[in-house]
């Protein structure tokens, strides 16, 4: 089972802004098992981008699939694609708002599905920007588009149920947590509205997913220090603690995927488990002074079942540099040696800065665009 995860994806209308983040995917190949891809990308959230709007704001007025068309072949080619939806959706007719309290067009959900995404993490520091109604609108829109989700919930029962997906013969559980909510308190009587990042809880949830039948457990973490390429002390500490968790001698978590930082961060194997500290941004429209916010990585991890058939392990790890080309027209594209070579080199340097190449991480081969 293989998964690809683009970095932060941000989309928005001409006035409102929205951003998203990408997560990692996995692919599994084994005799008699059909290979499966998991791809991830960040959906609209904080920083945003322009979307074609054939008229005034209103239901179905924005086409975000055009922005993501440059990476659709990578995403859609996966059997399972996972994204991060950072900001809540507003009503179909708006208003759509930007920082500090975001409301993104619900049309984003259809754009994500059209690009090939299957599930989104929704726990972020902006999840509560529009209160419980924003969570409800976001999850309703994702449901309507056929995109699964994890990290926020409309009920206590939903909060207890991780996103369950199938890929390449594997049962995959997708969990999602955020370091905080920008000081916005959890809604009264709804402590389950968004998953807050606590290592003990993450491990307990991962173990519960295993007991429920998950072959692979993917964890999305909204964490770290914005605009900082190096993982901070908390990221390093939590990565060690989470990857060290074991039951019966086997890891409880198979992959950690970080979002939030806006810039690409390193990949690293910790206690034998791959950690992507931060994918950076996939879709964003930062000003020239913050050009790094328009850059990110896409990750693909290939999982194969163990010889006994009772546990899947990573057999290949890959990454691909990505870039928000502000255009016009605005599009998310892969950054190759023949196109945006400076972006590719910056992303490669960040991704490999903690020795991931020695652990076997390779750059995905993509045709020159």
TrEMBL record:
Membrane-crossing residue ranges in chain numbering: none
Gene3D superfamilies, per database record: 3.60.21.10
Domain Capsule synthesis protein CapA: 37-286
Region described as Disordered: spans on this chain: 1-58
Pfam families found in the cross-reference section: PGA_cap
Xref: SMART domains: PGA_cap
Family: Belongs to the CapA family.
Name of this chain's protein: CapA family protein
Annotated source species: Streptomyces pathocidini
């Amino acid at each position: 089972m293989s998964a690809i995860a683009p970095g932060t994806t941000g989309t928005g209308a001409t006035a409102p802004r929205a951003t998203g983040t990408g997560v990692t995917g996995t692919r599994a190949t084994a005799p008699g098992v059909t290979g499966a891809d998991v791809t991830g990308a960040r959906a609209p959230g904080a920083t945003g981008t322009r979307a074609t709007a054939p008229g005034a704001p209103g239901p179905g007025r924005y086409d975000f699939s055009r922005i993501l068309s440059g990476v659709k072949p990578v995403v859609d080619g996966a059997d399972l694609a996972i994204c991060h939806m950072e900001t809540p959706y507003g009503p179909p007719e708006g208003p759509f708002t930007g920082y500090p309290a975001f409301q993104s067009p619900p049309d984003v959900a259809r754009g994500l599905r059209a690009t090939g995404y299957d599930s989104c993490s929704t726990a972020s520091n902006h999840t509560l920007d529009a209160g419980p109604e924003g969570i409800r609108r976001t999850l309703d829109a994702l449901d309507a588009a056929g995109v699964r989700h994890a990290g926020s919930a409309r009920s206590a029962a939903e909060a207890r149920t991780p996103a369950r997906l199938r890929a390449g013969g594997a049962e995959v559980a997708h969990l999602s947590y955020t370091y905080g909510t920008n000081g916005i308190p959890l809604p009264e009587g709804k402590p389950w509205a968004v998953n807050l990042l606590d290592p003990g809880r993450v491990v307990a949830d991962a173990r519960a997913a295993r007991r429920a039948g998950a072959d692979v457990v993917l964890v999305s973490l909204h964490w770290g220090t914005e605009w900082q390429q190096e993982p901070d002390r908390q990221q390093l500490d939590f990565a060690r603690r989470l990857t060290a968790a074991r039951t019966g001698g086997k890891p409880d978590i198979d992959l950690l995927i970080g979002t939030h930082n806006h810039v690409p961060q390193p990949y690293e194997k910790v206690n034998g488990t791959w950690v992507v500290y931060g994918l950076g941004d996939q879709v964003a429209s930062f000003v020239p002074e913050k050009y790094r916010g328009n850059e990110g990585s896409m990750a693909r991890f290939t999982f194969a079942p163990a010889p006994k058939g009772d546990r899947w392990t990573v057999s290949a790890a890959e990454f691909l540099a990505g870039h928000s080309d502000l255009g016009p027209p605005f599009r998310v594209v892969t950054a190759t040696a023949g196109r945006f070579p400076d972006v590719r080199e910056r992303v490669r340097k960040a991704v490999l800065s903690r020795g991931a190449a020695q652990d076997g991480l390779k750059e995905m081969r993509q045709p020159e665009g």
